[in-house]
Amino acid sequence: MRIVAGQRAGRDLAKLLDAHVRPTAEHVRAALLDLLADDLKDASLLELFAGTGALGLEAISRGARRCDFVETRASSLHTLNANIGLLRYKKRTRVFKKDAVPFAASLSEGAYDLAFADPPYGSRMLDHVIRSWQAKRFARVLAVEHAATHDMTGLPAGAVTRAFDDSAVTIYRLAPG
Questions:
Q1: Which residues are registered as beta bridge partners of 70?
Q2: Rounded (10°) angle between helices 74-87 and 54-61
Q3: Percent helix, strand and coil across the chain, each to the nearest 5
Q4: Which conformational region is residue 31 in: left (phi greater than 0), alpha (psi within -120 to 50 degrees), or beta?
């Protein structure tokens, strides 16, 4: 696993040795961040279910100002902190050892420019995060990764979705005005 583009392009990241965690595939991460390129400049980011932090760290490499990471698993936190150190992004990051679903629900409107969420596939945690975003719009843009087969029925319409093999990303934006 490595940073694909930006200031730290080509830098290797620490690997997570936990079979229960599925890091975002490099080609999916690169495509998602390409789709969000105009939103990254000087943005304040949130990465829920952060895992290794690769998504938020690459976003900083591509021009985001800072990123807050939310993760509960000890193995993921260890790897996340190692990756922050490897890239020397300590001053541009904060790590919260918290459950991402209630963390998202507690946020105030406009807390971040851009939020990422990549909960475990097959869970309904994704739906809870999206509903929290609908209720409080804690970010201008919410980008979520999910199984391509995830039932998005009942979730907001008007989002952009791109499929990549078994994975998909969906991007929600605040309506202008």
A1: 48, 96
A2: 20
A3: 35, 25, 40
A4: alpha
> Whose structure tokens read 């690769």?
54
User: What tokens were used for 106?
Assistant: 């507690």
What is the arrangement of strands in the sheet containing 139-147, beginning at the earlier edge strand? 93-97, 66-71, 44-48, 112-117, 139-147, 167-173, 160-164
Per-position b or e across 12-31, b if 16+ CB within 10 A of its CB: ebbebebeebebbeeebbbe
Contact 84, 90 (CB under 8 A): yes
Fold assignment, 26-173: Rossmann fold (3.40.50)
User: Domain boundaries in the chain?
Assistant: 26-173
On the question of pLDDT at 170 being above 60, the answer is: yes
* E strand spans, 31-133: 44-48, 66-71, 93-97, 112-117
Contact between 143 and 159 (Cβ < 8 Å): no
Give the pLDDT confidence of 9-64 residue by residue, as tens digits: 889 898 877 666 666 778 888 999 999 999 999 999 999 999 999 999 999 999 99
Residue 96 burial (C-beta neighbours within 10 Å; 0-12, 13-18, 19+): middle
Whole-prediction pTM value? 0.92
